Amino acid sequence: MSKELPVEFLDLTGGVNQEVPASQIEDNQVAMAVNFRPRPPEIIQRGGLRRLFTYTAENGGAEPVRGLTMQLRNGERGLVVLGQTHASWFRLNYALEIRMGRLSATNDLEPWSIASWNEVLFVARKADGLKILEFGPDFVGDAGAEAPEMPLTVSETGDPGPQIATTEYTYVYAFQDSRTGFTTSHSDASNVLTSTGKQVKLENFEAPPSERFDKYVLYRTLPDGTSQWLLIDTIDIADVPYIDNIPLEQQGELAEEHNDPPVDHARSVIAFGGRLWIHDGRLVYPSGLLNPESFPADDALEVGQVDAEEIVEIVAGRDRVLVGKRNSIWSITGTGSTSWDIRLVDGEHGVISRRSMFEQNGLFIWASDDDWYASDGMTPGIPLSGIGHKKLRPYFLERDLMKTVLAVPIPGSEGALLGLESIVTLSEVEQ
Question: Alpha-carbon distance 387 to 398, whole Å?
Fold first, then answer.
């Protein structure tokens, strides 16, 4: 039986061109791309996605797609397309596009790092830092926020209240996003109020930094005059000024002191152990437990800091976070600041490019200088070309060293898409 020759597409860098008749497109373009598979001497269409479209942003410009992920919006499953600067949510049949808005002002071409948290998305890359996308109502903007700068002004009303007479009180407040539950650090203290047993009026609230913050969280000191503030109420942004008539026994938890926003230029984001994790190339930052936008500076983790190497990528596994540095791999296990355990996994094969490391079915895969490597997260990596993946090696050795290497696991399978620009063609790969 004669061997069928592979079909090669050597140059489709011109992309999809639907602006002119198909007969007039350039040699490196296609008039339409569909989901197909080669069957020499022809190609046949497969089921599933029927059309590969060019993403057009709301300003009318075509943008390269820098990230894709599935996400619910008002209970409906759809596809989020992250462009170079804009983002959209598409109903699965593409009959409806919801433009999310401007995601970035940098025009950077680096792919986005993406992590899902309940019904919101967090995305990150070096040029833009950590961003949040909320759905229905829709919002795109910076993750986290600083505490209010403006302290409250408090004064007594003429109506009797539960406050204890002759006691001094102060108040603080914070912004809250009720959809994620994120609450900022609290403001500076209000003026000191010496109580005569009356209700207290709170005013002079600072406007939230964006429309996603729909609540104020209010705190009051105890009658003993300590500097600790305890919760008295959470109110809608529109419900100010506020009259405090809350009895002592109804005060709740302490105000958060250190719900710090994420560091600038967060390069990657993952979800692990009830926390979001980011890194800035130097340190790894776990968020507060179940508080994905709070990154206390004191909780930052040093990973192999002696070598002064750059952290390239972080990946979440089943029981650990793997940290890929330029020439080494490290693991982080534990559940909190008293139990974090940081250990060297591989001191010889680091990660060469952001977005070139992933976890699939308990196995960590990454691109190093000479091969793709695999590890269980506890033992040094094994080259994939040495365990039955010899077809990858010619592509890898002939890659363009100036280009980003990508690795994306395929959901629901044991496979992955490995992307690298290479001068090797399919017919030259060892069979």
Answer: 20
Token duo for residue 246: 């809350």
pTM: 0.83
Q: Are 326 and 351 in contact (CB under 8 A)?
A: yes
Which helix (H) or strand (E) segment is 129 a member of?
Answer: strand 129-134
Q: What is the mean pLDDT of the chain?
A: 87
Identify which of 260, 291, 71 has the alpha carbon closest to the alpha carbon of residue 181. Answer: 291
Question: What is the pLDDT confidence band of residue 59, given thresholds at 50, 70 and 90?
Answer: confident
- The single-letter DSSP state of residue 1 is -
Which element (helix H / strand E) includes 382?
strand 382-383
Residues 394/401, Cβ–Cβ less than 8 Å: no
Q: Which of 134, 92, 130 is nearest to 112 (CA)?
A: 130
Q: Any residues with CB less than 8 A from the CB of 321 and at least 6 apart, and which?
A: 270, 272, 277, 284, 314, 315, 331, 332, 333
Number of residues in the chain: 431
By C-alpha distance, which of 228, 251, 239 is closest to 163?
Answer: 251
Task: Report d(CA 223, CA 169) in Å as an integer.
Answer: 7
Q: Is residue 81 very low, low, confident or very high in pLDDT (cuts 50, 70, 90)?
A: very high
Q: Judging by DSSP bridges, how do beta strands 284-286 and 275-279 pair with one another?
A: antiparallel
Measured between alpha carbons, how far is 198 from 402 in angstroms, rounded to an integer? 70
**Are 117 and 131 a contacting pair, CB within 8 Å?**
no
Whether the predicted pLDDT of 256 surpasses 80: yes
Q: How many Å apart are CA 302 and CA 24, to the nearest integer?
A: 57
CA–CA separation, 405 and 399 (whole Å): 9
